[in-house]
Write a structure and sequence with these properties.
The chain is α+β, with helices and mostly antiparallel strands. Helices cover 36% and strands 22% of the residues. The strands form three sheets. Strands 1-2-3-10-5-8 form a six-stranded antiparallel sheet, covered by helices on one side. Strands 7-6-9 form a three-stranded antiparallel sheet, with no helix packed on it. Strands 4-11 form a two-stranded antiparallel sheet. Helix 2 crosses helix 3. It is globular, with a radius of gyration of 19 Å.
């Protein structure tokens, strides 16, 4: 599992997967220390670029590079129709809100468990990127992970056996971790989850998952 701090240098270099880039950008909108860490990484990347040896480009290289960048960069979501405006999404940081509104208009929320809804975000990522809406006291089914999972609390909070997580906090889990997040009392919790492997449920949910071949 990569250290989250390693994402900053990859983000500054423009080579971080779009799903994880959205995670960094969203946490940066919530926490000054993350913004400072990203800025420091960008300064280092700029300094390294300035001291690199100059290499002559082949004819047309700049145009080809720009075309590749355009092909890799996810399109900025267009403004959703009024009916897509979901109560609560307007409080999300700008970039996350735009993707969430576009997803709500295109696919809508799915029920994950009583009091819990999930929204699959299309950000051009190879990872699974989802926004969760967790009502106070609602419990995510107990599960482990096929790979690494990074869950950022955007509003409200949730708790599991490892502790309490509030706005700007990041819960990092891997295949050896089994947990059951429960929404904290008070405000509804919005959480952005980015994972490079699916969830593996335990108990009855796990039996159903295996029967369905998921």
């Amino acid at each position: 599992m990569p250290r989250y701090s390693e994402f900053y240098s990859a983000y500054a270099a423009g080579r971080l997967d779009p799903g994880f880039a959205l995670l960094v950008e969203t946490q940066g909108a919530l926490r000054a220390d993350v913004r400072e860490a990203v800025a420091a990484s960008e300064s280092i990347a700029g300094a390294l670029l300035e001291t690199s040896d100059v290499v002559e480009l082949t004819p047309g290289a700049a145009d080809r590079a720009l075309a590749l960048i355009d092909a890799l960069a996810p399109d900025t979501p267009s403004a959703p129709p009024p009916q897509a405006l979901d109560d609560g999404l307007e409080i999300l940081p700008d970039q996350l809100r735009d993707f969430a509104l576009a997803a709500a208009a295109a696919r809508g929320w799915k029920m994950a468990a009583p009091g819990i809804r999930r929204l699959s975000l299309d950000v051009g990522s190879e990872a699974e990127v989802e926004l969760y809406k967790i009502q106070p006291g609602a419990a995510v089914p107990r599960h482990t992970h096929a790979g690494s999972e990074y869950t950022l609390v955007v509003t409200g909070g949730f708790s599991d056996a490892s502790g309490n997580y509030g706005p700007g906090d990041l819960a990092v889990k891997g295949p050896d971790d089994t947990h059951q997040p429960i929404g904290d009392p008070g405000e509804v919790c919005y959480a952005l989850a980015v994972r490079d492997g699916g969830l593996r449920f335990t108990g009855v949910m796990g039996v159903i998952q295996r029967l369905l071949g998921a």
